[in-house]
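Comment on this:
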Amino acid sequence: MSWRTVIISSRAKLDYKMNYLIIRGEDTSKIYLNEISTLIIENTGVSLTAYLLSELIKRKIKVIFCDEKRNPQSELISYYGSHDCSAKIKNQINWDCNTKKFVWTEVVREKIYNQMCFLRELSRKTEAELLESYLNELEFDDATNREGFAAKVYFNALFGHNFTRTEENNINAALNYGYTILLSAFNREITVNGYLTQIGIFHDSMFNSFNLASDLMEPYRILVDREVYWMDLNEFTTKDKHDLADILNKEVLIDGKRHFVNNAITIYCKSVFNALNENDISHIRHYQYEL
C-alpha cells in the first residue's frame, strides 16, 4: 500500500520518469510513485507535466492544489476509479434507504464516542459524561440530532464557551485545513472503489460535490481536533499545515492491526461499502481510539 504524503512547498518543476516523481528545484530529487498516496502542491509557482498528471491518476494518487495562501483549493479526481464503476454507481444509487440510515447512525455513534474519549483524556469529566448521555440517547438515523448537541459541548470544552465554528480565527483555519486533507483522502478511496463522491448516505447538498466523503470522514475528524488542540495558534504557520498533513502518516489500530491512517481509511471505507451493498452494518470496521 502507498503511504507517503508529499508536500511541494517551493517553486519547482515536477515531471515523470521511469516510475518516479522527479522534483526539479534548487536541487533535483526523485520519489518512487508507488510509495505516494497524496501529493500536496502548496506553491502556485509549481509546474507539472501532463505526463506526470496522467501517471498520478493511473496510480490513484490524490493530488491537492493550494491557493496563494497555501490553503487547499482543489483536487485531482479520476473519472474512472474502478473497472466496474458503472455497476458500482448503479448499486450506490439503489442502496437501501434503511441501511443507509443504520450506517449513518453507526457513523454518528463512533464520532461522538471518539469525542467523548478525547474529553476524558483531557480530564473534562462533566462534558465527557454529557456526551456519554448523548450516546445513550442516540436514536435511529440520529433523529434527535445528538451529533449537533455533542459538537457544541465538545468544541466549547476544547476551545472555550465563546468559540463557534463560523468564526474567522486561527483555530478554525487549522481545523478546516486538516479536515480538507482528510476529505481528500476519503474522496480518493471513494473514487478508487468506483463510487461517486456526490451521492451521500446523509449529506445531500446539491452544492457539495463530496457528500459521501463528508459522511464517511466524521469519525476521523478527531485526529485533526487532537492535533489542533495542542498547537500554539497565535499564528497558523506552514509547519502547522505540514503537521496536519502528516496525520495521514500516523498509525492507528484497526481490525486488530496497526496501520497508517491512510491505509485505515482504505479498510474503513471498504467495510462501509460492504455494509451498504450487503445490508449488514456488522461489516463496518472502525479504528480504535487510543489514549
Observations:
- The mean pLDDT is 95.
- The longest helix spans residues 97-121.
- The chain has two domains: 4-76, 85-288.
- The domain at 85-288 is CATH 1.20.120.920 (Four Helix Bundle (Hemerythrin (Met), subunit A)).
